[in-house]
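A favour, since you know our structure tokens better than I do. Just paste the record in under my message, thanks.
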Amino acid sequence: ATGLLYPASVQMSISEVQSAAELIVSMFAATTSELLGVDVAPPAVEIRNSPYLAYFDHRSGKIVLPHWPTLDHKQQAFFLDLTDTPEEAGALFVALFNEFLVAHEMGHWLQRGLGIVRDRYDSEQEANNIGVAFFRAVEGGKTRLLNLHSPLGAALERLVDPTPIDADERQFFNEHYAMLAAQPAAYGYYQFRFILDSIDARDTLDFAVLLRQMASE
């Protein structure tokens, strides 16, 4: 994939957030089509605030993303608690939900399209690996990853590992996924760490290699 992605910002309108996300989605789908030799249509993007913030809705075939300026105060408060200033909270939110997680959700779109079945733990990690690999392949994308790493790592330090001391992390995450997904601090701990792990492993993550491995399963 080539092309420069323009960064999301807290001042972006709903339509601007949608356009920025659609650029990532179309580039991801076009690169997938090229590498696999099949013509795949990109999913639609809908900007709508929801309790789950960002997700791929396989029933409607849409990637649903949030909009920071119109987010409810309770959801904004969570990110304000993870940062030192409102500006830092907004910047972290848009870099995460309006940029990186767009490619992450395209990873779930890819899993669905290829009929790949994973447990929740592996599915999330794979989607993050795919997201990192995609950004590495885009002009300026590696810088975006590195710019996300520091504030996300600082935010993670303010969260507590929800895994019980005597529990297996993978098993706990899989068995209690619905409960965790409804608790921003608990789910955020895992997802932030998964993303950071993927960014740390960025030099080993090649988009074409990962895509072909998934398609060959």
Strands lie at 44-47, 55-57, 62-65. The radius of gyration is 16 Å.
